[in-house]
Structures are given as structure tokens and as C-alpha cells.
Design brief:
heterodimer, A: 72 residues, mainly alpha, 2 helices, 0% strand, B: 589 residues, Methane Monooxygenase Hydroxylase, Chain G, domain 1, 2 domains, 26 helices
């Protein structure tokens, strides 16, 4: 009887952990998706920009976001 | 030691009087019930008006007559000059009204407070007020239990009025019973000696009771029951006016500059008014007799005459002071200059907010941003720079104008960082930590983590001050040095910190976490310039004999402080302006 209870508790613990992990995974997917969108819009901005300095700055920022994408 | 004994001695004295004199017990109970009534009325009006009073007072100071009139009307309705004073001081502190406007309201309030004497003398001592008071208390309690705030407010006002009238009834009864055994009027003192004694007694009674309205009610009921002479009652009323300013001045001692200015204005006004009333006491008394005939007050109706006298000498005081309000304002501003050392207090934190975690986090973020702004101002000053010369200027991507601004800012800005921390930051920092800890109790794990990070941000802000203190010493020395190389290095340190501050300033209002992350990361990568060991700059300067060994050690230490400051600034910005926890964690480089 005690063993059964213990097993249930372990099961519950793992199932909870799993749902948290799932949520995290979903959130990360959303984050990557919005990061991709952001990077696309930045690429457009770089193309449209007429100022060399601004273009350079945006490129640097895009590089940072690319490395963030890799980390995620 | 003596101060500590006063209160218990006072309680013992009251206990003694209550035990040995049943008549005095009734009178003192009357005063207590009267004061309870005043408190209920004040709270009830606050609830009932729902901010209407504040709005009306805020809009009414465009001219002096308007300010005086609104002070009069508001106090006459609320029957509490202390409530009006509190509102006026808070408006003045928030700079919503001018000092002359605030003085106008206080003057008007002084006339408005005399309406209590009219209420007591016309209703309180003439009709069987206790019966009416009972009905008011009953209806007051019923309405107080209503769920709607307006009804609750009306209920409390009725309860307050009921208690005020009940208090008057008790005082009257007490004096009437006392008359059977002891006739106080037999001990009356006339002449100039009497003036001094009774003015002093009136002032002392108000200081002890802490309410001039209650003192006036006491004087009127004593007069109506012929326990005191009319002339002595006039003197007591003058004393009550003085006594009320003593309590206001005592209260203002721990107040801010505006509170002190207003308390002194009130004190000067009441002392001046009392002076006029004492000097012209007999003439004023004759004038009251003369006016009484026209306003239909009976020849022997001394209670009403006293009310008229009370209003009259306050109106005369206002009329006499109005031409000098400009002078008074200037005097008060010179007497109490805006104290730059005033302690910073939390602007957004309130313990009631801790009930709502989301609101608590927002309030905390705002408060920490406020702390950040205060500290960064000192950071600029510590570097002998003015924030207004560095913030909001479009430096462009290459910051080509910045070196000139920094190079030309060589004048030391006097700032004692330790004193600034003790007198300004310590309290605010303490309040932030207290609020954060209390609010964490009702939060989810995720919210608790957010608050934990905010605590770290505030700690970083405060630690920046320590670095500024260290950096300040040599910066002020070397930016004026004849050695152009060391001067250049210290200017570089200053420039790099300004670039970080400027970069953060630009992202402060950005709603896009990715944008903030990217910009902060770039700022972080630019910090290498400050790592003078890693980039080998110090080595080069030493090898080429450009700087002395002492200068080298200073530069080595100070570049580390500058690096630390910039790093902390970026860390703070990451916590404050990146919403997403995951991005925030990745941003903690």
C-alpha cells in the first residue's frame, strides 16, 4: 500500500515536471518564432537604410540576435 | 527624562480628576466624545467627497480672494482645519499650488473654523441637542453599514455630528451640575492680568486637547452655563487661536520645507491676529455689541456674541495680513530654503499595493527606475559632468561631439557621495527592500523571481555609488593634470561611462525585448576599452614613460571602477527593461 502511494507521488511529480517542461518548450518556440520575425524585419531595415552608420549599427545588432538565436 | 514623564503624569492627573470629581468626569467625557465626533466627520467627508474636495482646492488658488474663499468654504463644510492643512501641504509639496495660494487657503480656513463656534452657540447650547444627536447616531450607524461608499460617508458625517452634539450636551450637563457646588465665575479675573491668565489658559487647553474647536465648544458651554464671564470667554477664545498654532508648529517640526513654511505662516497669522485682538479687546467687544444689534443677537446671548467675536477678529486678521502676503511669501522662502539634502522617499510604493502582485511589481520597477535616475545624476556629477549636457543630445553613432564636451568639463562639481547616500538614498533603498520582501509573500514563484532580480538591480544601483566615490577622487585631480596622457586616459573613462549611460537612456522606453537585448549586448562588447590591462594601454603608457608609476596605479584601479560601473549599469538595464525572463537570463553576460 505504502509503495503504491509512493509510486503515485513519483508519477505525479514526473507528470508535473513534464508539463512545466512542455510549457517551457512551447514558450521557447514562440520566442524563436518572434525572434525570426524580428531578424527578418531588421534585414529589411538594413536594406532600406541610406545611412552607412545606421546600416553598420543594424548589422551589428542583427549579429547579436543571430547569436541569441543559436543560444535559444 | 522629563519629556518621557509628561505623558504618564498627564494620564495620572486625568485619572485622579475622573476618580474624585464626577462633574469634571462628565465634562471631560464630553470633550472626548466631541473629538471622536470631529474625527468621524473628517473621515466621513473624505469618503463622501471622493477626491472632490482636493480637486476644488487645487483649482481655487488662481487668485488670493478665491483661495481665501475656498479655504473658508471647505473648512466650514468639513469642520476640520487640520484636514485642509494636510491637503494643502501635500499640494504644495507636489507643486500643484503656489505658496501664496496655500497661505490664502489657510487664512480662509482660519475664518472657516469659526463656524464651529456658531454651530455650538446656535444649536448646541440652545436646544435639547442630545435628542437630535441620538437620531443622528442611529441613522449614522445604519448608513455606515451600507455597502456603497457615498452612503458610508454620509453615515460617518451623521455619526460625527451626532457625537459632536452629544459631546456638547455632556459638557453642558457637566458645567450645570458643577454650578451647584462650585461657581467658577467667582474666581474670574478682570483687567490686564485677567487677559494674560485667560489667554494663557485658552492656549494651554488647546495644546492639551489638540483641537481648537473642542476648546471653543468647552468655552461656549461654560459661558452658556455662566461658569465664566463673557470677557474672560473672549480672552480664552484668543488663547485657543494661539494654542492651535502651537500644535501646528510642533507637528511641522518633522515636516518638509513646505510644511514648515505653511506652519510658520499660520503661526505668524494667528499671533498677529491674537495681538490685534488683545490690544483692541474692549473696542472689539463694543463692536460685537454694536453688530449684534444688526444681526439679531440678543443682548444677553453671550454664546452667540462670542461666536461673532471669534469670526470678527479672524476676519480682521485676514484683512490686515492680506496686503503683506507677498512679503510673507518671500520671508518664508528665505527662511526655509528648499532643502537639497532632503531625504528621497518612495514615490510609488504603498503597502496596500502588496495585495496585488502585478501592481506591486510595476510599482517596484518604477521606484527602482527612480532610484536609478537619482544615482546616475550623482554619477555624472562625480565625473564632473552635467547630465543635461550629455542626455538627450544626438551624439550620432560615432559620438564625435562627446570628447569635446568631456574635455571642456573640468570644473569639479561638489558632491559628497557618502552624505548623498546617507541623506538621500539609504531611506529609499530601505523602503524598496522592505516593500519587495513584503510583497514577495503573496507572489507566485515566477513573480518572486522577478522581485528577487529587482532587488539585485537596486543593490547594483547603490553599489555604483561606492565606485563613483572611488573614481571621483582621481578623476577630479587628473582631468586638470598637466600630463596630457593621463588627462586623456581619464577623459576616455568618462566618455565610455557616458556612452553606456546614453545607450541605456535610449533603450529605456523600448517595448521590444530583442531590441533592448541587442543594444545592451553591443554596449557590453564596447566595454573592452575600459579594461586597460587587457587592451594593454597601461603597459604602453608605462613603457613609453608617458605616466608616472603613481598615475599608473591610479589609472589601473580607476579603469576597474569605470568598468564595474558600466557593467552594473548594463546589468541593471537588463533587469529593468527586458521583460522576458529567458532573454533576460541570456542577457546576463
Amino acid at each position: 500500500m505504502k509503495l503504491e502511494k509512493l509510486m503515485k507521488k513519483i508519477e505525479k511529480f514526473f507528470s508535473m515536471d513534464l508539463s512545466v517542461q512542455e510549457k517551457k518548450f512551447e514558450k521557447r518556440e514562440e520566442l524563436i518564432c518572434s525572434l525570426d520575425k524580428k531578424m527578418l524585419s531588421m534585414k529589411d531595415k538594413i536594406k532600406m537604410s541610406t545611412s552607412v552608420d545606421k546600416k553598420e549599427q543594424l548589422k551589428k545588432e542583427l549579429d547579436v540576435l543571430k547569436s541569441l538565436r543559436e543560444k535559444l | 527624562m522629563f519629556k518621557k514623564l509628561i505623558y504618564p503624569l498627564f494620564l495620572l492627573l486625568i485619572g485622579y480628576i475622573l476618580f474624585f470629581s464626577s462633574d469634571a468626569k462628565i465634562i471631560i467625557a464630553g470633550i472626548a466624545i466631541f473629538i471622536v465626533g470631529m474625527i468621524f466627520m473628517e473621515d466621513g467627508f473624505k469618503l463622501f467627497s471622493g477626491g472632490m474636495l482636493e480637486k476644488a482646492l487645487k483649482k481655487s488658488t488662481s487668485s488670493l480672494p478665491k483661495a481665501i474663499a475656498s479655504g473658508f468654504v471647505a473648512t466650514a463644510i468639513v469642520q476640520s482645519s487640520s484636514l485642509i492643512s494636510v491637503i494643502v501641504i501635500s499640494f504644495l509639496s507636489a507643486e500643484l499650488i503656489t505658496l501664496s495660494g496655500a497661505i490664502g487657503i489657510i487664512f480662509g480656513s482660519n475664518i472657516g473654523t469659526t463656524t464651529t463656534a456658531w454651530i455650538v452657540s446656535s444649536f448646541g447650547v440652545k436646544i435639547e441637542i442630545a435628542q437630535l444627536a441620538m437620531s443622528m447616531v442611529i441613522f449614522g450607524v445604519i448608513l455606515k453599514l451600507h455597502s456603497h461608499k457615498t452612503y458610508q460617508g454620509i453615515g460617518m458625517i451623521l455619526l460625527g455630528l451626532g457625537f459632536v452634539f452629544l459631546g456638547i450636551a455632556y459638557m453642558k450637563e457637566g458645567f450645570e451640575t458643577l454650578r451647584n457646588g462650585l461657581h467658577l465665575a467667582e474666581y474670574a479675573i478682570e483687567g490686564s492680568w485677567g487677559i494674560l491668565v485667560y489667554v494663557f489658559l485658552g492656549a494651554m487647553a488647546t495644546v492639551i486637547i489638540q483641537s481648537s474647536s473642542a476648546t471653543m465648544a468647552l468655552i461656549i458651554t461654560a459661558l452658556a452655563t455662566q461658569q465664566i464671564l463673557y470677557i474672560n470667554a473672549l480672552e480664552l477664545a484668543i488663547g485657543a487661536n494661539i494654542g492651535t498654532t502651537v500644535t501646528a508648529v510642533m507637528g511641522a517640526m518633522t515636516s518638509n520645507t513646505n510644511g514648515k513654511r505653511l506652519a510658520l505662516a499660520h503661526f505668524i497669522f494667528n499671533m498677529f491676529t491674537a495681538f490685534i485682538a488683545i490690544v483692541f479687546l474692549y473696542q472689539l467687544s463694543d463692536f460685537v455689541d454694536y453688530l449684534s444689534y444688526y444681526v439679531d443677537i440678543g443682548e444677553s446671548d453671550y454664546a452667540m456674541k462670542l461666536a461673532l467675536f471669534h469670526t470678527l477678529f479672524n476676519v480682521i486678521g485676514v484683512l490686515a495680513m492680506v496686503p503683506f502676503i507677498g512679503h510673507l511669501e518671500r520671508f518664508l522662502k528665505t527662511k526655509f530654503k528648499n532643502d537639497k539634502k532632503e531625504v528621497l522617499r518612495a514615490k510609488y510604493l504603498n503597502e496596500s499595493i502588496t495585495e496585488v502582485p502585478e501592481a506591486a511589481i510595476i510599482a517596484l520597477e518604477k521606484e527602482i527606475s527612480y532610484l536609478y535616475n537619482s544615482v546616475t545624476e550623482i554619477l555624472y556629477h562625480g565625473l564632473s559632468l552635467h547630465r543635461h549636457k550629455c542626455v538627450g543630445i544626438d551624439f550620432g553613432e560615432d559620438y564625435c561631439e562627446l570628447p569635446n564636451i568631456v574635455k571642456n568639463s573640468v570644473n569639479k562639481i561638489e558632491i559628497n557621495v557618502d552624505e548623498f547616500y546617507d541623506r538621500k538614498i539609504k531611506t529609499l533603498y530601505g523602503e524598496i527592500l522592505h516593500f519587495a520582501t513584503i510583497s514577495q509573500e503573496k507572489m507566485s514563484q515566477e513573480e518572486q523571481y522577478k522581485v528577487y532580480m529587482l532587488k539585485i538591480a537596486s543593490r547594483d544601483i547603490v553599489e555604483i555609488l561606492k565606485d563613483v566615490k572611488e573614481l571621483q577622487k582621481n578623476t577630479n585631480r587628473y582631468i586638470k593634470s598637466s600630463n596630457s596622457d593621463i588627462k586623456k586616459q581619464y577623459n576616455t573613462l568618462r566618455e565610455e561611462i557616458v556612452k553606456t549611460l546614453d545607450g541605456i537612456n535610449m533603450i529605456e522606453n523600448s517595448a521590444d525585448d530583442f531590441d533592448v537585448y541587442a543594444k545592451l549586448s553591443l554596449l557590453e562588447s564596447g566595454l573592452e576599452k575600459l579594461d586597460m590591462i587587457k587592451n594593454g594601454r597601461i603597459d604602453t603608457l608605462i613603457r613609453n614613460n608617458k605616466i608616472e608609476p603613481k598615475m599608473a596605479s591610479s589609472l589601473m584601479n580607476d579603469s576597474a571602477f569605470a568598468y564595474d560601473i558600466s557593467k552594473k549599469l548594463i546589468h541593471i538595464a537588463t533587469i529593468l527593461w527586458i521583460e522576458d525572463r529567458e532573454i533576460q537570463e541570456l542577457g546576463e553576460m
